[in-house]
Write a structure and sequence with these properties.
This protein is of the alpha/beta class and 278 residues long. The protein is 39% helix and 13% strand. It contains ten helices and ten strands. The strands form two sheets. It has an eight-stranded parallel β-sheet with strand order 3-4-5-6-7-8-9-10. It has a two-stranded antiparallel ribbon with strand order 1-2. Strand 4, helix 2 and strand 5 form a beta-alpha-beta unit. Helix 1 runs parallel beside helix 2.
């Protein structure tokens, strides 16, 4: 089985660079899908309160028989729980749903610029959670550089991670560079743009020349750029393909060709305007 490299976060915690995402997997399918991913070799699972499937992720890890400390698990604070007491209570709910005593990484899911509770205040609650020792690291999701600058001005702990939408049609080099300059690891959600990039002629050509799938080529592009990535699939064969990224490399020309596909095209909402509360 391939060995997945780890990236060291700014507090010394190591995170596997390749994980398995459960976004949009229905709760009734999540346990089996997660268990299959763990059997394939994944040791990093990314979930969120908003996804409604934390319980099933925890169930799958217990059923797998893999020691808890060998699986890195991330969850995220749901929108609508940004006030301090609500955030603390929501985190308690995450631990209860997962059946864990401690989480590996907890993120603010969205900055929500239009709501009454400022995310800087929310971050102070995250710092309390981190200080309690019940999560090994804290971070943010969907934060742009101007969001992060505001956060830095009112916080003690620097986010370990910023999870943002990244794929060849949305390379996000400016955000990624800002993160790197401030010792924040970038995680890429929607890494294949919900499949939209897989038919791109440039990617198809590279895949054909290397004898790889287009998804493998795109995911390898992410890996070589240094981002953490967690593709989602409920198909075990595809899970295996997505895991097989560490026995080949893309050359400089191929990397540049894929990066050059950037056209600022999002598959999800813009964090500057997204204020959805479920």
């Amino acid at each position: 089985m391939a060995s997945v490299p780890t990236i060291t976060l700014n507090n010394g915690v190591e995170i596997p660079q390749l994980g398995f995402g459960v976004f949009q997997i229905p709760p009734e399918e999540t346990a089996e899908a997660t268990l299959a991913a763990l059997e394939v070799g994944y040791r990093h699972i990314d979930t969120a309160e908003m996804y409604g499937n934390e319980k099933e992720v925890g169930e799958a890890i217990r059923r797998s028989g893999i020691p808890r400390d060998r699986v890195f698990v991330t969850s995220k604070l749901n929108n609508g729980f940004h006030a301090r007491d609500a955030a603390l209570e929501a985190f308690d709910g995450t631990l209860k749903a997962l059946g864990f005593d401690r989480l590996d990484l907890f993120l603010i899911h969205w900055p929500l610029p239009g709501i009454d509770v400022d995310y800087v205040e929310t971050w102070k609650a995250m710092e309390e959670i981190y200080a309690s020792g019940r999560t090994r690291a804290i971070g943010v999701s969907n934060f742009k550089p101007h969001h992060l600058r505001r956060l830095f001005g009112g916080s003690e702990v620097r986010p370990a991670v910023n999870q943002i939408e990244v794929h060849p049609y949305l390379a996000q080099d400016d955000v990624r560079a800002f993160d790197a300059d401030h010792e924040i690891v970038t995680e890429a959600w929607s890494p294949i743009a919900q499949g939209k990039v897989l038919d791109d002629p440039a990617i198809v050509a590279i895949a054909g020349r290397l004898g790889r799938t287009p998804a493998q080529v795109v995911l390898r592009w992410h890996i070589q750029r240094g981002d953490v990535v967690f593709p989602k699939s409920v198909d075990r064969k595809r899970m295996g393909e997505n895991f097989a990224l560490f026995d080949f490399e893309l050359g400089e020309e191929d990397m540049a060709s894929i990066t050059g596909l950037d056209r600022g095209e999002r598959t999800g909402p813009d964090p500057d305007t997204f204020d959805y509360i479920p």
